[in-house]
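Hey team,

Filing this mostly as a record. A colleague (T.K.) asked me to run one chain through the structure pipeline before their review meeting, and I want the input and output archived in the tracker in case anyone asks later how it was produced. No errors, nothing strange. Just documentation.

Input sequence:
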Amino acid sequence: MGWLLVPGLLWPCRTVFSQIDPEPRKLFQLGFNQSLEGAAPMAGYMFYYLNQPGFLRTNLTLRLAIAPVYVDSELGIRDALGPDTDLGLGLAGGGFADSYFEFRDGKYFPSDSFVGHSAEVSGSIYHLFNPGQRIPLNGILRLREHYSVYDEYNNTSPAFVLPHDHATTSVRAGLRWGGKEPVIHPDLAMELSAWYEGEFRTDSGAYGYHGDRELEPFSQLMFGRALLNYTLPQSKQSFSLSLTGGGSGHADRFSAYRLGGNLPLSSEFPLLIPGYFYEELSATTFVTLSGEYDVPLDAAKRWNLITYGAAAEMDYLPGLSQAGHLNSGLGIGLAYHAGSWQVQTSYGYGFEAIRDGRRGGQNIGILLQFDLQAHHLANPIVNPNGPNESRGLIHFLQNLF
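Output structure:
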């Protein structure tokens, strides 16, 4: 059994914002998942996240995520292309971000798995369509050039032919109303977003065992999300709901949607299902509904009982299908929050996860967040200067509850 290292910046939807983040942040994030049944690599991430407005000049913002073997950065230039139109220049690269781990029918195949390393440059245009409004509507257009290099994993079969090292040129466009901060449990967040991404690859073609799988020269992804997080002002009970769905064209093992596990900061749009291996399922189309409810257990409201769950209906990637299109899971956890620290332990059960020919999978996990910025506002729910400015939503929800 080995480590499946998630640099914190994976999957076609990477951990970047659809606008330049104006809030200073210094966050340390750690998370891991371990299955209690079935052999699978332990999945985890550990990274330091820095966001520094006013970097060198007042109109520059530096965003930097540093993992042990991976770095992702972007320099944001406010109003570079006109009023309310910003420019972002990105540079990323390092080890393991493009690694692939094969799962079929609930079983991990190390013989079909391999390591992937990468380097990337990108340019992004961010436009704010409704300046002055309480809930921002942002548009994004991103051009990304990504290069992948593959190598054998510890137990990769000698008969398995690796895919060619190749370059991927991708174009991504989207609209996002609202947003969510890059933390484990935001007190308040809402989002409606829709996205398109097209990927063009060089050196595509057959690989695997006698060419039994294909690296597509062109793939498309279309997806969207509706999300709401809210914390009750007096009791500090909180809940979150998320509805995410997507489709694809000419998807392959590298561009398909990957679902499973409980690592919420592994991507910008994590597709979590409790009790499953991390990214166990590969889908060409999917719809997933997830939710969480947190209840304080003590008067100081430092200890919280967490219940969460998710259900997803999907069409599988050819070659990775299994009986039944529905996959669901429930979980329970205990969280502790004191000052800048947040720690959460969890147990998840996947109802339809296949393990040794039967249904039912289990996993445990831990999440840790340390806020080095220690930036606390007078009202912890209202953040008028943050990327999720939404006082109109706060007023509506406070009246509702």
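Quick notes for T.K.: The chain has a mean pLDDT of 89. The longest strand covers residues 107-128.
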